Each structure stands twice: as C-alpha cells, then as structure tokens.
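TA notes, week 10

Several of you asked for a full example with nothing omitted. So below is the full record: structure tokens for the whole chain, then the designed sequence directly under it. When grading your own attempts, check the secondary structure regions first.
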C-alpha cells in the first residue's frame, strides 16, 4: 500500500505539472491495474492457461493484500479526477490519509477526493461534538450487530450447507441460497455501517454504500441501492468515458454489459464471479430495454 501511495502521488504531481497528461494518466492507471492483476488475478490467469493449453505453470500462491481492490480503485479515481481538472492541490500527508483512512480502507465505501479532502483539512479545527459522536457510536453498534449477530449466524448454516451440497434436498438447497444472500448483505452492509460510524465518531462523514437493496423493485433499482460507491466509480470513470448512452442504444447496452462484466471480475478471481457479473449485465440490459419500450 505504501508503494502504491508513493506511485500514485508521483503520478498526480506529474499530471498537474506536465503537458502530456493523457500519457501519464494512462501509465498511472496501467501500473495500478498491473499491481491489482498480479496480487489478485495472476494465479487465476495461470490456472486457466494450464487448463486450456495443458501446461503446468506453477501457481505462485500470492497473498492478497487487504483492501487492494478498494484502495486501487480509489486512487485510479483520484488520478482521473486530477486529469479532468477537478483537483489541483493536495499535500502528500492529506493524500496518504485519503488512501489509508482505516475505517473504510479494507472494504469501502470507495470515497472520492471531494468527499474527504475538505474534511481532512478541518481536522483539529472543529470542537468535539457529543451528539455527532453518539450518532456515530449508534451506527457502529448497528453495523457490528449486522455483522456479528446476523451475518455470522447465517454463515454457520451456509458453511454447513455448502459443505454437504450433494446431500441437500430441494428445500434445504433453497434455504442455504437464501441464507447466503442474507449473510452476504449483512456482512458487507454491516462493515460499511461500522466504517461510517467510526468516521462519524471522529468527525468525518463517509458516504452511505447500501440503501435497503433487497427492497428494490427491479435490477436497475437494486444497483442504485447496492454498493453505491462502486456503481458511482464505474459510471463516472468507465461508462461515461465510453460514451454512456450518447452514441445510440446498441453502444449503450454494450457499455452497460461491459461495466457489469468488470464488476463481476472486480469482486473476485473466479469464473463464478464473472458469470455473476454477466448475469446481472444481461438482466440489467433486458430491464432497461423493457423500460425504454
């Protein structure tokens, strides 16, 4: 993470000072993605090469650094915003804190510079607010309850169910899938609530990342409520630069599908994650088509 911070802050300085901004941005983003690929996807890549070509490349069994998916995307967003001229002044100390701020470092939310840097510059200038601290404590306890009491409880049943998947009956299999759905939400949502709560206790506002996603009426509504900051990242930094919906319906659907493919790949190094992203992409495009017609 320290190497990543130094690399990206150097790229930020070059973008603000040099004329060849696009080349520097491309280089910085590429290096970020190469680091992410090496630590998260290199063994997955070798596994598939061995399976397709019958080769026997030894897997590296690389340990995945905590939070690398989150702080990598956060820094890519920072470089892109700098390139667009949305950011011009950031000290190294503020940047290092922006990347390593511990409440949301490991599992998000993925924050942006306009949300965090102005708050960091107010550190030490505001008085302690008991009401804000208590609100943060309440949100933290709520998130910890989601994680420890609900997600971990469902997790016991899920581990047992997947451990004997071949012996499950129809009803048991449906229950295990339902329990996993609830475990996944309450685990991730609970962590984000704890991050928001700790931030608020320290006088720092962190954006909401979940907004009752299982109350959504369709897949489009779901993605406005689930992992909101990831959707925001993909929309601003990939979907819109690719043309968004400005270049016809075919291009729009292709862009949407590509975003969900990347989202699935970002969530994990495995074909199940890719299939999950593709499935959501297809369903999202179909729903969008029905809404337009």
């Amino acid at each position: 993470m320290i190497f990543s911070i130094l690399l990206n802050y150097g790229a930020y300085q070059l973008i603000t000072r040099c004329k060849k901004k696009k080349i520097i941005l491309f280089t910085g983003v590429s290096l970020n993605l190469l680091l992410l690929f090496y630590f998260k996807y290199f063994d997955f890549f070798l596994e598939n090469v061995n399976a397709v070509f019958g080769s026997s490349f030894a897997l590296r069994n690389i340990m995945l650094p905590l939070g690398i998916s989150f702080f990598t995307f956060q820094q890519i967003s920072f470089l892109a915003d700098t390139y667009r001229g949305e950011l011009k002044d950031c000290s190294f100390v503020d940047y290092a804190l922006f990347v390593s701020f511990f409440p949301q470092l490991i599992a998000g939310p993925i924050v942006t510079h306009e949300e965090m840097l102005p708050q960091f510059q107010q550190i030490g200038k505001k008085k302690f607010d008991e009401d804000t601290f208590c609100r943060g404590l309440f949100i933290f306890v709520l998130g910890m309850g989601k994680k420890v009491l609900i997600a971990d409880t469902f997790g016991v049943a899920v581990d047992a169910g997947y451990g004997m998947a071949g012996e499950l009956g129809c009803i048991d299999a449906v229950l295990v899938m339902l329990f996993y759905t609830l475990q996944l939400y309450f685990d991730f949502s609970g962590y984000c609530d704890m991050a928001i709560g700790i931030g608020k206790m320290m006088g720092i506002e962190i954006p909401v990342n979940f907004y009752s996603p299982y109350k959504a009426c369709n897949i489009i509504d779901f993605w406005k409520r689930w992992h909101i900051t990831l959707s925001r990242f993909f929309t601003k930094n990939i979907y819109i630069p690719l043309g968004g919906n400005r270049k016809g319906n075919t291009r729009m659907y292709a862009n949407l599908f590509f975003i969900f493919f990347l989202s699935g790949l970002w969530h994990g190094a495995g074909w199940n994650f890719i299939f999950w992203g593709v499935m959501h992409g297809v369903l999202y495009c179909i729903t969008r088509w029905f809404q337009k017609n």
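The CA atoms of residues 154 and 183 lie 6 Å apart. Use that as a sanity check on your answer.
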